[in-house]
């Protein structure tokens, strides 16, 4: 059902800024067969900006279509770059508060890959997630549950540190969730929050970074105001993952009233959305171009890969490569594009691999060179940026 009021400030002053009429509702749940993938549930991404507080959300989001359970795989520890990122995050948290002997709760812990690293620092760790496996031991305990008011009521002790990574972009009411985090923390407790930066998406015109799962988007300005409103003061902040993510440590304190967004900030975001939509239209003009390489592969079967497969179908992508064994041999929702192991392209003589996320370019180039030395590897932007004759730039 379409949202008629802002989920953050309850204002009815809304303005549409971007739309995809039909995209798969999941990017981290794959299909078992191409046929199942082609009939995957779809939804409308109708991004709307509140002209009072600045919150950007999908006014047509249907939460009942997005139920998280077994089979949801967002883990990326198979990447060396991502593994280093997780260690850097833990170091950032420890700069604010030592983790040894602390009670750490992670809301939306997934399979627990991050929380297990926290446990190695001497913390007692509890994870909560509908898709979490049942694990207990070694200072780690995972509960297959939602972090909500009912779970909060069941907690016997508050958390010293609450970790929330890549969850609040999946919910329409972030202020309510931040207030639950506030209640779950001990006095002077620390919240670590990680989520995509809308400013980075728009600066890079990354239209493929706007999946249906993500029904809420945060500018640098908005997230700072939201945290203050929920009762958190920033202790440390970093734009991590080459600027793609917020990595924020915030200390529990008293809350304040929500501040309105500045008019120039609202206008800036609206303009950037317009530019991003134009980038999407320009990328699709390549459908009539004959110089597109024949054996195109993407690397990465997560949000960017699933979205590119669906939004750039005319490129006739042969497959999406991913190191995650949970994804290999399965099919991309919407298109049925196969997910391949890196070794699957070792015999393809003319493979052209496009890396969706530039942070992985060096890692993937080196890995591909060992498996398929004949393959050519390029950043995705070279495929999307083309000259007047339609030829991919610098290829």
Key words describing this protein structure:
17 strands; single chain; 3 domains; 29% helix; 5-stranded parallel β-sheet; Rossmann fold; 395 residues; disordered C terminus; alpha/beta
Portion of residues in helices? Answer: 25-40%
Span of the ends, CA to CA? 45 Å
Order of neighbouring strands in the sheet with most strands: 6-7-5-4-8-9-12-11
Principal-axes geometry comes out as globular
What share of the residues does DSSP label as strand, in percent?
15-25%
Brief description of this entry?
The chain has 395 residues and is of the alpha/beta class.
SSE layout and pairings?
Blueprint lengths: L13 E11 L9 H5 L3 E9 L5 E3 L21 H17 L6 E5 L5 H7 L4 E5 L7 E2 L2 E4 L5 H6 L4 E7 L8 H11 E12 L1 H6 L12 E2 L2 H11 L1 E8 H4 L1 E8 L10 H22 L11 E4 L3 H9 L7 E3 L17 E2 L11 E4 L5 H11 L4 E4 L1 H4 L11
Parallel strand pairs: 4-5, 4-8, 5-7, 8-9, 13-14, 13-16, 14-15, 16-17
Antiparallel strand pairs: 1-2, 2-3, 3-10, 6-7, 9-12, 11-12
Helix pairs in contact: 5-7
